[in-house]
Structures are given as C-alpha cells and as structure tokens.
UniProtKB/TrEMBL annotation:
Quaternary structure annotation from Swiss-Prot or TrEMBL: Part of the small subunit (SSU) processome, composed of more than 70 proteins and the RNA chaperone small nucleolar RNA (snoRNA) U3. Interacts with BMS1.
GO MF terms, alphabetically ordered: RNA endonuclease activity
Pfam families: RTC (PF01137), RTC_insert (PF05189)
Domain RNA 3'-terminal phosphate cyclase insert: 183-287
Protein name per its UniProtKB record: RNA 3'-terminal phosphate cyclase-like protein
GO cellular component: small-subunit processome
Similarity section: Belongs to the RNA 3'-terminal cyclase family. Type 2 subfamily.
Keywords, alphabetical: Nucleus, Ribosome biogenesis
Primary role: As part of the small subunit (SSU) processome, it plays a role in 40S-ribosomal-subunit biogenesis in the early pre-rRNA processing steps at sites A0, A1 and A2 that are required for proper maturation of the 18S RNA. Activates BMS1 by promoting GDP/GTP exchange. Does not have cyclase activity.
GO biological process: endonucleolytic cleavage of tricistronic rRNA transcript (SSU-rRNA, 5.8S rRNA, LSU-rRNA); ribosomal small subunit biogenesis
PROSITE patterns according to UniProt: RTC (PS01287)
Residues annotated as domain RNA 3'-terminal phosphate cyclase: 10-341
The keyword Nucleus is assigned to this record: yes
Length: 373
C-alpha cells in the first residue's frame, strides 16, 4: 500500500475528477482540502459525491474519507476491478461528466467494463454522449483499444432538469497502449451530425438541420445530419432539443461542436433556427482551432500518451484549453512526466489558428491485472 509520504495534497474543488482519476491510475493517495470552505453551502456537491461513489463501484479496496462538512476528502485508491456496473448519475451534471473519466480508466480494469449510466445525456455544460461517441471512441482506437465489446449506446435520452436518460458503455481491457504519431490533421472531408428532439414537436429537429446546413453548405457538399426523435419512455422526463456536429478529416481526425436548448423553466426559449446556426458556427470555430484532437478530448489524448509504452508519442493540438493546461501540471505531479511543447505558427500549409506539437515518452504503464495468456 502507498505510504503517507507519497500522498499528494491539494486545496479547492476545481479539477476534482482529474485528481481522482490520476490518483487511481498512479496508485498515489490524494487529499483535497478546503472544498468550497467559504461557500454558503460548503463541501462536496451531489454530482461530485455521485462521481466518488462511481469510482468506488469500479475499484476494489478504495478507501474514501470525507469529513463532517464535506470540505476535506482523502482518497486512497484500490485496484481497478471493472465488471458490470449500474450507476444513477446526478441530474445536476450530464452523463458526459462521468463518462469522460470512465474513458480514461476503462482500458486498465481487471475485467472488461460494462457500465449502465442513468441521468442527463445532453446538457449545456458537459460533453454530450453523442459527441463522446463520435470523437473519443475513434481516439481510443488509435491507441489500440478496440474490439467487438467496445461500444457506447444511447438507450434513452434525458434532458435537464429531469434527466431519465440511459447509456450503456462497454470497453475491453488492454495490457499496454500503442504509442501514437498524430501530426497531420488532414483536410475536412465530411460533416455528420445528430439533431435530437425529445418531448417537443419532431419538426424542431428538421428546423435545426435546415438552419445548420444553410451555413455549412457553403463550404462542403458532403453533409448529413440525422434527426433523432425519441418517443414515450425513451424520451426521458424533460422536453428539449439540440444538435451535435462532427467534422471528419482525410486522416481520420474528428472535430466536434454541440449545443442544447435551455432547460425547461430556465432562461429564455431558444429558437431551433438560432441553435442550428450557432452550432454550425461553433463547428467552424473548432475547425479553425484545428489539430488532430478536438478541444474536448485533449486531456484524454495526453493521458493515454503518458501511459503508453516507453516510446515517443506525438500529437498536434489546437490552442490548449485551460483545463488541459492544468491537466499537464497534474500529470507532472502524479507521473513525473513532462511534455515537450513546440508552437507551430499557422504557416501556408496549416490554415487556421496556431498549433501546438506535444511530444512525450510514455511511462510504460501496464495493466497489472492482465496477465499474458
């Protein structure tokens, strides 16, 4: 067991997931103090407590201590166990909040993970399940995580504030990850999307599609936006609609953007036409930022590069998001790994914003539970 000397100490509620995920992978205990200590409502929120419960379900022998007010958390990680798990996520955050962390941990379980998550599938804060399915799964495949049992399925949609959605995520286990060389983003060759509507008129989805196409058609002809109108029990508990768009490049890179309507009873009503237009513009902005991994999955790519074999991995990213910058600091604390960061100003061949080339040597992390057959 890790001794007290190796444990890391942090203050504040930010980046809680990053710290707990890296703690679980590195086996180093972590203590987080002053979690919203000066707030009117101090301590951990429901969605964070729910996340800690989920970690407890997929690990074996984790020790979690939370003080009376919930402002201090001590987490001593156990072994990643996996297996079949069901979890009711808090409706305050989307299922994407929980799924992002599961994507980081799933390949290193003892048994292949099959998890059923219930809650909000699409909201305005977290990456939706549609976007993670279209961008994060192909990214994991680049690292050699693939197989028949690798899938993410949306059984029911749930919009905030009621939730009621359900997704099934299953992932095979891997002993080691392949190093990657993603330095050529390629050109955009097609755009795919999903316009969904639940508990509102199915016409909403068609209106979103028309307005999004009105912008994107100027750039590329190969655009197909599916409409998904879920009925009855599959539509969750609250009305809403939204759009997720994914642009695929010639070299197999996926860039995404999404928008959802305001939750029932909160904020002004959004017109589907405006939502479609705004989402198309967000996609164009993401394409301008560019890189081989979109801004949602930057930290996932960097983590899997860190955990790869002791070989050089390179990835070309668009401008680093603040979340990714903090993630790099955490990677240094937990795994003592530093990335070589080179800025690539947008030359003639690289259109769009300035790019960053990230290079690292993997730490040779291997899945201890998976013995060689």
């Amino acid at each position: 067991m890790a001794t007290q000397a190796h444990s890391l100490s942090y203050a504040g509620c930010n980046f809680l997931r990053q710290r707990l995920v890296l703690s679980t992978l590195s086996g180093r205990p972590v203590k987080i103090r002053k979690i919203r200590a000066r707030d009117d409502n101090p301590g951990l929120r429901d969605f964070e407590a729910s996340f800690i419960r989920l970690l407890d379900k997929i690990t074996n022998g984790s020790r979690i201590e939370i003080n009376q007010t919930g402002t201090t958390l001590y987490y001593q990680p156990g072994l990643l166990y996996g297996g079949s798990v069901e979890h009711d996520c808090s409706v305050l955050r989307g299922i994407g909040y929980y799924l992002e962390s599961l994507l980081c941990l799933a390949p290193f379980m003892k048994h292949p993970l099959k998890v059923v998550l219930r809650g909000v599938t699409n909201d305005q804060v977290d990456p939706s399940v549609d976007v993670l399915k279209a961008t994060a799964l192909p990214l994991l495949k680049q690292f050699g995580i693939d197989g028949e049992s690798f899938e993410l399925k949306i059984v029911r949609r749930g919009m905030p504030p009621g939730g009621g959605g359900e997704v099934v995520f299953s992932c095979p286990v891997r002993k080691i990850l392949k190093p990657i060389q993603l330095t050529d983003p390629g050109k955009i060759k097609r755009i795919r999307g999903m316009a969904y509507s639940v508990r509102v008129s199915p016409q909403m989805a068609n209106r979103i599609v028309d307005s999004a196409r009105s912008i994107l058609n100027k750039f590329i002809p190969d655009i197909y936006i599916y409409t998904d109108h879920m009925k009855g029990v599959n539509s969750g508990k609250s009305p809403g609609f939204g759009l997720s768009l994914v642009a695929e490049t010639t070299s197999g890179t996926f860039l995404s953007a999404e928008l959802a309507s305001n939750p029932q009873g909160q904020g002004a009503a959004v017109l589907p036409e405006d939502l479609g237009r705004n989402c198309a513009q967000l996609l164009l902005e993401e394409i301008y930022r560019g890189g081989c991994v979109d801004s949602t999955n930057q930290s996932l790519a960097l983590l899997l590069m860190t955990l790869g074999q002791q070989d050089v991995s390179k990835v070309l990213l668009g401008p680093l998001s603040p979340y990714t910058i903090e993630f790099l600091r955490h990677l240094k604390s937990f795994f003592q790994i530093m990335f070589k960061i080179e800025t690539k100003p947008c030359g003639e061949e690289l259109k769009g914003g300035d790019k960053v080339l990230m290079t690292c040597v993997g730490i040779g992390f291997s899945n201890l539970s998976k013995t060689l057959k």
